[in-house]
Design a protein that fits this description.
six-stranded parallel beta sheet
Length: 458
């Protein structure tokens, strides 16, 4: 019999969801890494040699989720959220790695600002962390100086959003597309169309119009036009483009189905566009106000199909917490954005349990493909030698609903309150540390910076 090793953990009798298959098996964690992956029953001697033994009892074991689109509000907006609170919400929801957006205060538009956020995350984050550098009309030198093995890519706003980092210079956009040697993640809404729509709607209705007018202001046409221009620019200049939060069926024409390997243009959508439609503004109000706006039920159906068919490559949250009082008002006055990270994986796995997707597809969109697209080193898969970022999910639990007492985001609310879920996160491991277990968060700091080893594209 093997000698018992205190730093070895075995998770056995699991249904492992990984690389397109669900396989009964076991995983051994040794230190920070996965040391063994096996199918079938774990040998008795192997179990006896591990210091910690987890009987999964037929539950789902998946790679840790990678959310490549979050706004953790740190620095400068920490009354809403910060890296500590939101990373706790992340691991409670099975998200073990995140990539944070640059529209903070100050905006993350210099290499020094990225370094400062990395230092902050190293102190407080429960989840592995990476950061975008933001583009402006005047910071191309900073974008070209960035180390894209440590920086996830460039965030480019073609429509105004929180932080007002709009890039509206055509020459600047062209140079970014042509010269930046890394992934460009784009918020694709046409600002001229939005501005004209807003002006016309305010003249007609005043500034107290209901939130149902939001998708009229931030319209389908604004999304389609901006996405068209971004994709045409990427083709023209050979840029590596990732289009964020697709919200319309019309935009799907610009993307191709199939594996992400070899794609230079990829697409993301978010759980809110797969769950809600404009018919629900009356019930949810500004709680589901986000940019781009939630569109029609037909758009929702098309997006769900695009996720299943591989036209959309990633499901991420655009996690954007605001305090409840900041969400007060209608289409003009209420701020846009919602907290989603704690419940995004349970929501998507619950949709799979209903038959709208498969468990394998959810893992592909939320674990595998973010790692592939961003070239993340040894994460996103259950493989020997990879970091032990793992999530144990119970898809046989009693159905439950999201209630305010379980919300960990600082803002204290969720648009999913009352939503029925059928899959629960039981345990989360980050770099081999069991940081979340049956509703209890352990405070041990085990997070690491993400390394983007294959992120140079020119």
């Amino acid at each position: 019999m093997e000698a018992k090793a205190s730093n070895r953990t075995i998770i056995h009798s699991a249904r492992i969801v990984n690389e397109g298959e669900i396989t009964p098996g076991y995983v051994v964690i040794e230190g920070e890494f996965i040391s063994e992956v096996g199918s079938g029953e774990a040998p008795a001697g192997l179990i006896a040699g591990c210091g910690s033994v987890i009987d999964a009892d037929g539950r789902l074991l998946i790679p840790g989720g990678i959310d490549e689109h979050v706004h953790f509000r740190d620095p400068g907006l920490t009354h809403k959220a910060d890296m500590a609170t939101e990373s706790r919400a992340a691991v409670a929801g099975g998200i073990t790695s995140f990539i944070d957006m640059p529209n903070t205060v100050p905006a993350t538009v210099t290499c020094k600002a990225v370094e400062d956020k990395m230092a902050r995350a190293a102190q407080v984050s429960c989840a592995n962390y990476g950061f975008f550098i933001g583009a402006t009309n005047s910071n191309l030198d900073e974008l070209l100086a960035a180390d894209y093995t440590k920086v996830a890519g460039v965030k480019l706003f073609l429509g105004s959003s929180t932080g007002n980092m709009l890039v509206d210079s055509e020459s600047t956009i062209s140079r970014i597309m042509a010269e930046v040697p890394a992934l460009i993640a784009v918020h694709a809404e046409d600002e001229a169309i939005i501005s004209a729509n807003r002006k016309a709607m305010v003249e007609k209705n005043g500034e107290d119009m209901p939130v149902s007018c939001h998708p009229v202001i931030r319209s389908r046409e604004a999304c389609v036009e901006a996405t068209r221009k971004a994709v045409e620019g990427a083709h023209r200049y050979g840029a590596r483009l990732h289009v964020l939060h697709i919200s319309t069926a019309d935009e799907l024409q610009f993307f191709t189905a199939g594996p992400v390997e070899g794609k230079r243009i990829t697409a993301e959508t978010c759980p809110q566009y797969l769950l809600f439609s404009d018919e629900q503004y009356a019930a949810y109000g500004s709680g589901i106000k986000c940019n781009p706006a939630i569109k029609s039920a037909a758009d929702r159906a098309a997006l769900r199909k695009a996720v299943a068919d591989g036209v959309i490559d990633v499901v991420a949250t655009d996690h954007a917490p605001h305090l409840p009082q900041e969400k007060a008002g209608g289409a003009i006055k209420a701020v846009s954005g919602m907290p989603m990270i704690q419940f995004s994986l349970p929501v998507m796995m619950s949709l799979a349990a209903e038959g709208l997707l498969t468990y394998e597809q959810v893992v592909d969109k939320m674990c595998h493909n973010p790692a592939r697209i961003f070239g993340i080193d040894r994460r996103g898969f259950i493989r020997k030698g990879y970091y032990a970022d793992l999530v144990l999910l119970d898809d046989g639990c009693e159905p439950y609903t999201v209630t305010d007492d379980i919300i960990l985001s600082r803002c204290g609310w969720s648009p999913l309150e009352g939503a029925p879920l059928s899959v629960r996160v039981d345990m989360t491991w980050v770099n081999g540390c069991n940081i979340w277990r049956h509703g209890i968060l352990f405070s041990k700091r085990c997070a690491m910076p993400l390394n983007f080893l294959n992120n140079i594209h020119k």
